[in-house]
Design goal:
10 helices; six-stranded antiparallel beta sheet; WH-like_DNA-bd_sf; two-stranded antiparallel ribbon; WH_DNA-bd_sf; transcription regulation; 270 residues; alpha+beta; Transcriptional regulator, IclR family; Beta-Lactamase; DNA binding; Arc Repressor Mutant, subunit A
Length: 270
């Protein structure tokens, strides 16, 4: 450990640090876990982990299932998450825009941001006849397995990309997802040159999506806006119409965030 790291760590509160490590592990797992598994995953002494878990449970940040004894995230974590989401400018300015986008296209619409290697859905509106409700506000999905995530990665330099994915193989590979880091990088560069993503059954069979980036006043990608089209392949006669509606929504939200250019075309991006 470097002297700088030692100086930074001497001000840390060990109990708080360990409690947050447990919360992050429960968040990453997307499932309930028993005490023994939590201890194994976070590599914290049993007695310390027990006290941290009891404190988190008392404060409502985790809950223990009364029948199974397994632990999961509690309502106070969700409350913090929703308050954070509600504080985002992109949500405040984007919500009415995606409602209009839904009404115009007849498709469910979303706004998402990137948090590390996760995509987080921060706003959504469902089409009246939507049959697929896979995501809700706060849902996290792996960046490399979603078309929204690919678009969010277009902002990264090669060095930033490799820092995010230091391993050559990608985690949790499934059919349709890139096989490795280089395959993902190649897709992201194509997406960057194009300026948008049309992904047909990329993440879920029978569902296509159209995704455009959202830019803030500094010209940085703040998030993405998308529509979910309930077809395996978007008909040629609908493709341009739907794409232009999403591009217009992206321009509107980006301009409300202070961006002076046109979000709906990579050739016009910085």
């Amino acid at each position: 450990m470097s002297d700088t790291e030692k100086d930074a760590r001497k001000y840390l509160i060990p109990g708080l640090e360990r409690g947050l490590i447990i919360l992050m592990e429960l968040s990453r797992s997307h499932r309930e876990m028993g005490f023994a598994e939590i201890v194994k995953r976070v590599d914290i002494p049993k007695a310390t982990a027990y006290r941290a878990i009891q404190t988190l449970e008392y404060m409502g940040f985790i809950r223990r299932h009364p029948s199974t004894g397994l632990y999961s995230l509690g309502v106070n974590v969700l409350r913090l998450g929703f308050e954070y989401v509600a504080s985002l400018d992109v949500v405040q300015v984007g919500q009415p825009v995606i409602e209009s986008l839904r009404d115009t296209t007849g498709c469910s619409s979303h706004i998402a941001i990137r948090d590390g290697r996760d995509v987080i859905y921060v706003a959504r509106v469902s089409a009246a006849n939507a049959t697929v409700r896979r995501v809700s506000v706060g849902t996290r999905l792996p960046v490399h397995r979603t078309s929204l995530g690919r678009m969010l990665l277009t902002e990264l330099s090669r060095a930033e990309f490799e820092a995010l994915y230091p391993e050559e193989s990608l985690p949790d590979n499934e059919p349709g997802a890139p096989a490795d880091r280089e395959a993902l990088w190649a897709l992201v560069q194509e997406d960057r040159r194009r300026g948008y993503v049309i992904a047909e059954s990329y993440f879920q069979f029978g569902i296509s999506s159209i995704v455009y980036p959202l830019f803030n006043h500094d010209g940085e990608i703040e998030g993405v806006v998308s529509i979910m089209v309930p077809v395996h392949e978007i008909p040629a006669e609908d493709r341009d119409r739907l794409r232009l509606h999403v591009a217009e929504a992206a321009d509107t939200i980006s301009n409300l965030l202070g961006y002076q250019g046109h979000a709906g075309g990579r050739s016009q991006m910085r």
